[in-house]
Amino acid sequence: MPKGLFLDVVDPWINWDWLSTHIPYVLAAVQEHVTLTIVAVALGLAISLPLGILAHRWGRLRLLILTVFGVFYTIPSIALFALLIPYTGLSGTTAEIPLIGYNVLVLVRNVLVGLDSVSPDVLDAADGMGYRPFARMIRIELPLALPAIFAGLRVATVSTIGIVTITAVIGLGGLGQLILRGLIESFHSPLVVATVLCILLAFFADLLIAGAQRFAVPWARPS
Amino acid sequence: MNLFQATWQWLTDPAHWQGIDGIPTRLVEQIHLSIESVAIGAVIALPIGIVLGHYGRFGNLAINISNVGRAVPSFAILVIAFQVFGLGDVPIILALTALAVPPMVTNSYVALREVDPDVKDAARGMGYRELAQLLRVELPLAVPLIMAGVRTSAVQVVATATLAALIAGGGLGRYIVDGLARSDNPRTLAGALLVAALALATELLLAGLQRALVPRGIRLLKTPAANRASTFKTA
Fold this sequence. Notes:
The complex is a heterodimer of chains A (223) and B (235). In chain A, helix 3 packs across helix 5. Chain A has a domain of 135 residues: MetI-like fold (Orthogonal Bundle). Chain A has 223 residues and is mainly alpha-helical. The longest helix of chain A has 35 residues. Chain B is mainly α and 235 residues long. Chain B has one domain: Orthogonal Bundle (MetI-like fold), CATH 1.10.3720. The chains are: A mainly alpha (223), B mainly alpha (235). The interface between A and B is large, with 44 and 43 residues.
């Protein structure tokens, strides 16, 4: 869309004609956005659960893991993308490594909060009933840690949906691609559509996980 | 010459340490933008959070503003501010201020709420009026969590200020954005290293400031609340 077209008219915040003819384009961006987010959160969780359990067992490992991922979390995503490009190029891998790393910090912290909150009496009772350490972890401790883990999942997912937009600078970005386009072409519609959709996406993802929590942990209400 | 050597050479080249596109200029630009945004944000956010926390009103609002802050993409806020206000520091500072406010509101609210009710009772019993109680009893006890909020905001603002380069702003992000545009890998990598170092330095500096400002005898014991508040990432 040439910019000159809009120079003599005021560009409305949303051009419905543009939107009506670009629905497949917007949907493709949403799909890429959701895929990037799900991969980042799912792999983040897959790494955090074992890491969190190990850190809960060994105090020294806890400090190491929290420090390493804490440093990683502090580094802005755009810097990490830039550092990874020489190795992994403009690829999904470059986008996912920072996102996964950020989620690992959020989730490991919450796994630890959850596991730490299990009452010693419960652990005693489980031991008395003959649970071995592994079975006790899987069947007693992890289920009791679920409310904290779900709280972490909600924070991680909502944050990831926001940060995914920045991957537009390495040619991905999902809805971030629309924001970038709005910027480059000084064209408001894709920018507004992408912003609204990002917020809606975060809102519904949050609701969905809160719903899943209600289903999986009926004894603890989501906050 | 491999990439490491090239990046090192770029970083140590005296030409990159002077002039309008030199590292000192870019560093000062980014720090300047960040300090202004965090200061304006603190002036707005801290009184709101402190008053709401003191009276225990609108708790949902104070807590949820952080969730909203997480959900609104920082990149989008910057671009919208750019479209509305055009080139310059104003849109960048407005966008960064908007990002700085939520964690500080939430943290200062939680900080005031978590002051032990028995302590407040005791203050009342000793004859403190409301304002004196807030200023001399509640606030000192709330300092650790309030400062945790300021630190979270500041680290995120410094990180997000990197993105200002995308809307033609200055700062160290310039090297990353220009490096990517020109496929100039040493420049991109050097920028990334500088940005990472600045973010970490901000975190360490403010952690030190937080420790220094906490009144003697008070330690940050309630880590879960501190954790909740410090998981705020926008860039």
